[in-house]
Amino acid sequence: MHTNVNTLFEALWQDYIEMTPSAAKVHQLLSKGSAIINDHIALRTFNIAKVNLEVLAKHFESIGYVACGDYKFEAKKLNAKHFEHPDSTQPKVFISELLVEEFSDELQSTVKGLIEQIDTAATTADDFLYSGRHWELDTKTYEALLAESEYAAWVAAFGYRANHFTVSINHLADYDTIFEVNHALKAAGFVLNASGGEVKGTPEVLLEQSSTMADKISVSFSDAVINIPSCFYEFALRYPKADGELYTGFVAASADKIFESTNVNG
Ligand code: OOG
Ligand code: NI
């Protein structure tokens, strides 16, 4: 496990921009007036004991992160938790896991077959959170997973790495609203996730979010190389609670739509 928060996020970022060529360009566009501060990152996994949410969480808990919120996504069959660091300038972490037992026998046995190929020692190694795929996968299996769960197919194709980074709009000197950020992104040719509207959330729920649609990159499977959605970039504007402190949680109804930023036909 990493012992330093900064080196962990730097390694996650390097892997993420390799998967997401547009993210480096968005980063450059938004960082003209000020340094970019990350609101949060997100990771995905399956709820199988060897690699479940808690296994990923340990990598963050060992460097001081604390579990702060629980979320359920019934239609997508996911659970999630978010984690915060005592140093509030460090990014929050959103980790979700697919409830594998709620899917078909075929999906369950496919996923178990993938997870069996992981060396258990790898799950606690320094680099696990940006180690990618640990298994063989063919296109037919990917397509079969996709038919049941876009999320399952994404984890099968990309394995362990940051699914997205999130720009804190609160820290951008040149932008006051999420509409201005979205406008600048669209003017520069980036495609936003419009599921549930381009802006998810409202000032009343203390969090507004938007995201790009994931880049499509070529991924090597055992039988072919295909172009599929990789990772996306998110933008978050937080509002103060009654005590004057910015809200630090997530909003399940909004997160439900953010997940769709990696949909194949989004
Ligand atoms: C996570 C989606 C939810 C948020 O900020 O609400 C999310 C994912 O796509 O893995 O990131
Ligand atoms: Ni997010």
Automatic annotation (TrEMBL):
InterPro entries reported for this sequence: HGLS (IPR009770)
Oxidoreductase found in the keyword field: yes
Entry EC no(s): 1.13.11.93
Keywords: Dioxygenase, Iron, Oxidoreductase
Top-level enzyme category: oxidoreductase
Claim: Phosphoprotein is one of the keywords in the record: no
Gene3D superfamilies: 3.10.180.50
Pfam families: HGLS
UniProt cofactor(s): Fe(2+)
Top-rank taxon, per record: Bacteria
GO molecular function: dioxygenase activity
Family: Belongs to the 2-oxoadipate dioxygenase/decarboxylase family.
UniProt name for this protein: 2-oxoadipate dioxygenase/decarboxylase
The organism of origin for this protein: Shewanella pealeana (strain ATCC 700345 / ANG-SQ1)
Source species taxonomy: Bacteria, Pseudomonadati, Pseudomonadota, Gammaproteobacteria, Alteromonadales
